[in-house]
Amino acid sequence: SYLYAGMTDATNTWRRSTDGTTWANVTAPARIKQLSSTVGYFKEFTKVVTVTNKLYFFTNDTPMKLQEWDGTTDRTVGTIPANRTTGTNALFVMDVITDGVYIYIAVIDRVTTEPNLPGRVLQIHPKTGTFTQVGGEFGASPAFTMGCPSALAIHNGYLYAGTYTGTGSGNTARIYRKHLLGIPTHPLQDWLTDNTTASSLGSVCSMVSYGGRLYAVVASHIAGTAAIVKVRTEEGVWSTSRTGPATTVSNAYTSLFTFNGNLWAGWTDAGTTATRLETYDGTSWSNDQSFAATDVVCQGVTFLPSTGSLYLVLGQTSAAGNTTSSIRKRRTGGVW
Asked: Which of 46, 83, 108, 211 is deepest in the core (most CB within 10 A)?
């Protein structure tokens, strides 16, 4: 087994590790998608997913291609189709998730006047290479004017999509839902609005299902307002689960994931306050670890040969003044 890390720098190559400690440069698989300089730093990192022990990611082509890597062979699954309304190719993949069979992606198609940013959610069958658009285009009708899709989650039979609205202080993001069973028969049926964020808050950066509830992390683009972690009950009621530690300009919970039975959330404010990785055990929140103020928590993953260890990607962002990225390892017992 290998742990792969995609390098979205000038080389767009990969590094590989067998133990999570020693890393080597590798020339395969194909080059991963380069970062987008036009999308806010809260979402400016590339994700990959694994399905049946195969790695799936998007290449640095126009239009972007979905690539499969089985450890030996590269295979192009398919190409992201152009937006039917704008005719433009996807600019950047904002989020990638899987239910173990299908891959779901959220894309921004072009940068226009905020907050009406064109985008789509697509369902992909990795074996057949079939791309199916889920719901209507975001930013293309009055029902979907509040941003492009930026964060996806599967929860209780529904696919949820949170939006990215840009960096304007008055932009209001939303969370939509669509029943998974309706995708094969009515793929373009409209999304249902599930929640609208407060006007003082901005984009939905990440979502995850945990403990029978849906959690979403939301950014704040204006001074005086703290980013929050939101929670949705089974009855569909949203409330605040956690409030960020500072109210500086552009503070955000940037990532959300589960590990060892807990919920984990990364928080940053673009270089002013120490970045934090916070954890929730189903009852209370606590700060597990603080990092440099210029770090941004991008993604957390586990690796089977090192059971009990968490690998954390700390990203490089110009907004935070950081010039390097890194991978941190949390061993059993909480030692980083």
From this structure: 108
Q: Are 203 and 165 in contact (CB under 8 A)?
A: yes
Cβ contact 320:270 at 8 Å: yes
**Per-residue pLDDT tens over the stretch 254-263:** 889 999 899 9
Is the link from the previous residue into 149 a cis peptide, with omega within 30 of 0?
no
3-state secondary structure of 290: strand
What are the tokens at 212? 């029978």
Distance CA 51, CA 48 (A): 10
Which residue matches tokens 């999509």?
Answer: 161
- Res. 333 pLDDT band, cuts 50 70 90: confident
Which tokens belong to 292? 């440099």
Q: What is d(CA 304, CA 2) in angstroms, rounded to the nearest whole number?
A: 9
Which pLDDT tens digit goes with each residue over 60-80?
888 999 999 998 999 999 999
- State how far the Cα of 274 lies from the Cα of 267, in Å rounded to an integer: 9
Q: Give the model confidence (pLDDT) of 34-58 as tens digits.
A: 655 444 445 556 678 899 989 999 8
* Amino acid code (one letter) for 146: M
Burial class (CB in 10 A: 0-12, 13-18, 19+), 11: exposed
